[in-house]
Amino acid sequence: MNIEVTCNHIVIKMAQILRTMVIMNDIGFQGITQNRRRFERRKVDLPAYIGDPRWQRHDFESITILDISMGGIRFVVPKRMKLKIWKDNDSDPDKLIVIFRIPNFFWPIKVQISPKRVFEFPGETQIAATMVKPGFPARSILQKYLM
């Protein structure tokens, strides 16, 4: 009889823990959604420059990086920007260069990106892009920053 009471007590405690976890994670009781991202994102507010790889550095335009991960970035660009990033996903997206500096690191990071999604808002455009084969220095600095 002691074993049955102990088992029931354990089952009740486990149910309470699971319910608390669901409520704390704002998942609700509809079900658990799976995170499809390979890398965790970190919200940031970093000034950066973007441009075509064929441009000179003085032609690059300023942007703001909103979040960053080991696999990609999301950034905001003003509407008046001369660089055109196309919304259509059927064509092969252009490769662009983004240059930014991570806080507490002295050297700027230069990565090549490939735009994947474009979100239009009044006054600005947000773009989600993947990083295309970042070099070892960029990858190591990002790993240190994101940990």
Explain what the structure shows:
This protein is α+β, with helices and mostly antiparallel strands and 147 residues long. The protein folds into two domains: 34 residues; 105 residues, predicted glycosyltransferase like domains (Thrombin, subunit H). Helices cover 23% and strands 35% of the residues. The protein has a six-stranded antiparallel β-barrel. The radius of gyration is 22 Å and the shape is elongated. About 3% of the residues have low confidence.
Features:
147 residues; Thrombin, subunit H; six-stranded antiparallel β-barrel; elongated
The level of helicity is 10-25%
Please identify the structural class as seen in this structure: alpha+beta
Biggest sheet record: 6 strands, antiparallel, barrel
Number of helices: 2
Write the layout of secondary structure elements.
Blueprint (H helix, E strand, L loop, with lengths): L1 H23 L17 E10 L9 E8 L3 E7 L17 E5 L8 E13 L2 E8 L4 H11 L1
Antiparallel strand pairs: 1-2, 1-4, 2-3, 3-6, 4-5, 5-6
In short:
This protein has 147 residues and is an alpha+beta fold. The protein is 23% helix and 35% strand.
